[in-house]
Design a protein that fits this description.
alpha/beta, DHBP synthase, Rossmann fold, 2 domains, 11-stranded mixed β-sheet, 5-stranded parallel β-sheet, 11 helices, binds threonylcarbamoyladenylate, binds magnesium ion
Length: 349
């Protein structure tokens, strides 16, 4: 059973130091970041990193993000940092942006971290506990999101303690994640930015650095069997509850609400139970007897959505209908997670 430390009880330097010692000893630690919780190991220690794959049940061809606390750590690992990457680092680090770099030919980071790719994803988290943990460990920390593979990422310890407490050496509880969705993952190629996974740093914000920002076709498009992808994580089933889910979206609020009510009506007539997840201000318009508030703003929805998706299976309903949010700004990241949660079962009208 992991040692547990709770910020509410006054998380102190001493406890972060203990967790850092576990990292140095080659063990794995659950820790908060501003995006979602991570399960971290010394990124330079192959054996330690393998423990993460075991704990998550993660496919070995899905690479991990390396978390750093200073730029020297990056320079040790990557071939070069080009001008666009420099600008991105200045503007967005520390923060929720992961940049995919080319690795140095001399392999500082073991292949298990990068799933044998010639590239490596790196980010510098802004969360204070994460930063101190890396600093105290004195090594870059490889960490995927904290969840058993396939489940929504953990955004508070209560949501994941059951599935992970016997698998990690130390749990640092930093309360709810500020953002609630994983980092934006990008790659700079031929002076263009390609978004591989949307997140809190939006396309619109990236365009302030470089005009040419593209969204990878698989951010919203379905990955067909055996199709090549730019980021291995795109291939895997993700975020989906066992209960059937459907996302419904229209730019017209009225159309969206009508469609959701129509679906509710049809499903209820079949003797099945429906749960609607919608914006607070829309809830009263839904005819379903079960409805949950997903928040009002995009920031609130981002912060709440993983916890809600984790809860739906406990409700004993047959269909979960989820309001979509469109693709603008943070909406793109939320939509990307929702369509996966719904296993590409969505209606956009
Ligand atoms: O916010 C986050 O990014 C969180 C926190 C803990 O930092 N981490 C996270 O890690 O979400 P994970 O492993 O759940 O997602 C990492 C994604 C995967 O889809 C993976 O395929 C992709 O990043 N990735 C990592 N390295 C890559 C590489 N070299 N090339 C392409 N994609 C890469
Ligand atoms: Mg993940």
């Amino acid at each position: 059973m992991a040692k547990y430390s709770n910020q509410k009880n006054g998380l102190i330097e001493q406890e972060i130091a203990e967790a850092a010692q576990e990292i140095k000893n080659g063990n794995i630690v659950l820790f908060p970041t501003e995006t979602v919780y991570g399960i971290g190991a010394n990124a330079l220690n192959e054996k330690a990193v393998k423990k993460i794959f075991e704990a998550k049940g993660r496919a070995s061809d899905n690479p991990l993000i390396v978390h750093v606390s200073n730029i020297e750590m990056v320079k040790n690992i990557v071939k070069e940092i080009n001008n666009i990457e420099k600008k991105l680092i200045e503007k967005f680090w520390p923060g929720p942006l992961t940049i995919i770099f080319n690795r140095k030919s001399e392999k500082i980071i073991p292949n298990v971290v990068t799933a044998n790719l010639n590239t490596v994803g790196i980010r510098m988290p802004s969360n204070k506990i994460a930063k101190e943990l890396i600093e105290k460990a004195g090594v870059p920390i490889a960490a995927p999101s904290a969840n058993v593979s396939g489940k929504p990422s953990g955004t508070k310890v209560e949501d994941i303690i059951e599935e992970l407490q016997n698998k990690v050496a130390y749990i640092l509880d930093g309360g709810s994640s500020d953002i609630g969705l994983e980092s934006t993952v990008i790659k700079v190629e031929n002076n263009k930015i390609n978004i591989l996974r949307p997140g809190k740093i939006t396309k619109e914000e990236l365009e302030e650095v470089v005009k040419n920002v593209q969204i990878d076709e698989h951010v919203l498009g379905k990955v067909e069997k055996n199709e090549a992808v730019s980021s291995p994580g795109m291939k895997y089933r993700h975020y989906a509850p066992n209960t059937k889910c459907i996302m419904v979206y229209s730019k017209s609020k009225e159309k969206m609400i009508n469609k959701i009510n129509e679906l509710t009506n049809k499903t209820t007539k079949e003797g099945k139970k429906v749960l609607v997840l919608g914006r607070k201000s829309n809830l009263e318009k839904y005819i379903s007897s079960q409805k949950w508030n997903e928040g009002e703003t995009l920031n609130e929805i981002a912060k709440n959505i993983f916890t809600l998706l984790r809860k739906v299976d406990k409700e004993n309903v047959d269909l979960v209908i989820i309001e979509g949010v469109g693709e603008e700004a943070l909406g793109l990241a939320i939509t990307n997670r929702l369509i996966r949660a719904c296993e590409y079962n969505y209606i956009i009208i």
